[in-house]
Amino acid sequence: MMLPCPLLLLLLHLAIIHTRPYILFANRKDIRLLELTDNKKRAATNIIVKNLEDAAALDYFLEESRVCWSEINREVIRCANIDPRVKGKVEKEDIVTTGLVKPEGLACDWVGNKIYWTDSDTKRIEVAGLSGLETDRSVLIWDDLDLPRAISVAPEQGLMFWTDWGEYPRIERCGMNGDLDTRKVLVDSDIVWPNGLTLDYAEKRLFWLEAKLGYIASTDWEGNSRKTIFVGDKQTLPQPFAITMAAGVLFWTDWETNSIYSYNITMDHVEKVKVRRKLSPMDIRVFEPTRQPHSTSPCSQSNGGCSHLCLAAPYPPHYSCRCPTGYKLANSTTCATTNSAILLVAARDSIIKVSLDTPDYTDRVVSLHSVVNSIAIDYDPVDGRVYWTDLEDDHKQSIRSASLTSPHNETDVVTRDVDHPDGVAVDWMGRNLFWTDSGTDRIEVARLDGTSRRVVVSEDLDEPRSIVLDLSQGWMFWSDWSRVGKIER
User: Taking the model in full, what pTM does it have?
Assistant: First the structure.
């Protein structure tokens, strides 16, 4: 059993003697912790994590005393321990390092130990465990998303909520397992820029910031009983970004004033939180036990029997198994270990893999170090290896190969006497490799390991480019960028 950390003990003690919460917020270049006082004088902030690049979204795991955040410039999601004593000098752990562009919303499932996030550029909502492995990550929502922003989760109920401020602005909810049958629009009227989102777990209500129309409103988790809570002006809601709450008090950050505000719902009183030194606050969370109610998860026992991701669900048995991005369930608990159909893209400085087994068609960069300037690509389904032509520079042209799964075992297949290798085709039945070279004006063949090389065609070729094989009929076809372009066989 894990013993409570010193910071958690401090929070529990403070919760007993007074109700003033701590505020955790992203400050672009760092993450800070602020203890709220009576607001009669400016309060100091403690830097929890420093040396960040445009930290935007954040959330935390209270029991573990860990904060997780997204950095827009670095295109990563990372986590670190919370320890005010070390003044931000903490070890940062990479959780997600690929496939991110603009992750502006993030929520921690403190019961199932997962991170959920939105990305307004990839237009996806994803989930990942804390291992940092691609096999511990899955795309949940990809269709009919425009500009998803804020996200919050209710693990006990198995629900996630998010805002979308695209052409059809709205607030939605869905099961945390990504079951599209549970997806529901909660708010889509009198809404333009729904930026911030927070949940009241006791009353089961949702609060959101409307940045364009300048108000804060709430609804229940079914989208009913909508109420306007606060109508702001240019002093209180000029450009609000994120919102959080505790004990009937709302807190939000504002881009234009670079400030934090509070609003006591019962007293109908709003004020700017007085903080020492200039800030650039982004996402914000109240940091106290009431914001992460204790709950249990069926996933805590043997991962729910799941081979990969075990996610909370809003219906019995309150969890379901989910596969890594691009893989399908072989049965209710076990994921397939291979793809039945994939699309490979030579994208210059990277090789991109898209699984065709799942409807999201999410692209993933294959983590290869030898890709410099990939041009043409083909695949050997027998050994699961990809082959590509690489025009690294004028003095180094080659054909390379790597496994699509780790370890990738990257190798140079052909490096000598190649001038400008453009097309490549794998004869996976005969275990041969064909390629075109528009520099030497030849079509050549070799074994898949580069041995037994010979010229196939060298006459009447001008600039041979793409090449494909019809293995069943024994034909090869190629294109030629000559004065009169042609396709031959």
Answer: 0.90
